[in-house]
């Protein structure tokens, strides 16, 4: 078994990590364009439709998702224009975002030993929960919460080769009760929230999203950090629902201890989780 990297090795690793972040493909321009058009009051549905239909492969993925039974639409959606009228621009924006970013989540995260499609499933579930929680506790931030939820673990893409290289150490640290974040930091000097933060910063995403990604494993939040707390809670929803942690069943109560103002009844938690599961399954089947 290799030794835990010393300071010198950590510096080399971090230089490589920074290089990896700089070499990332740019954030899909189509998402930025579509979102800008959606936000702009003057934009017509036709303009958004033109943006998407310029990319036929994406347009067909968007239509496939728009026809998900999750949205419960009576008639087949055959055009982007019709999708925007039936589903609304916000939902259409999220579908465009999901369709454009999906390839990122199909990455095989070597080192983290996760099941195929876990990354995509976990990201979709977290995005849905973040949006839902925001619609009650931080209205007006739903779209940003969806993006932050979707991207919250993207930093794992950058760290994955290093976790794979030091896999024995990573798992021996977890066995010693290190949290994954602490194990990552012990090996590389940085954790996936921080690499995710750097990615979203390079992609020029809104600051809220950068912080939500960076802090989704943080222990305590200040009063002005409600958005980040919501991303953490949404991640917990997914971890607990799919039993991805050592959390014993029935510990959904942990959700209510993250942020003072955010308290949900068990019925609400189960309702959000059930809907998130349905959304995730339907979306996975169509990506
Ligand atoms: Fe995470
Ligand atoms: Fe996560």
Would you summarize the structure shown here?
The protein has helices at residues 7-22, 29-39, 45-53, 56-66, 80-87, 89-105, 118-137, 142-151, 155-165, 167-175, 180-188, 192-202, 207-214, 226-241, 266-285. The protein is mainly alpha-helical.
Chart the SSEs and their pairings.
Elements: H1 7-22, H2 29-39, H3 45-53, H4 56-66, H5 80-87, H6 89-105, H7 118-137, H8 142-151, H9 155-165, H10 167-175, H11 180-188, H12 192-202, H13 207-214, H14 226-241, H15 266-285
Bound molecules: fe (ii) ion (2 copies).
Number of helices: 15
Fraction of residues in helix = 55-70%
Major sheet description: none
CATH T-level topology: Hypothetical protein af1432
Count of domain modules: 1
Secondary-structure element series: HHHHHHHHHHHHHHH
User: On the 0-100 scale, what is the average pLDDT?
Assistant: 90
Class by alpha and beta content: mainly alpha
What distance separates the N and C termini?
39 Å
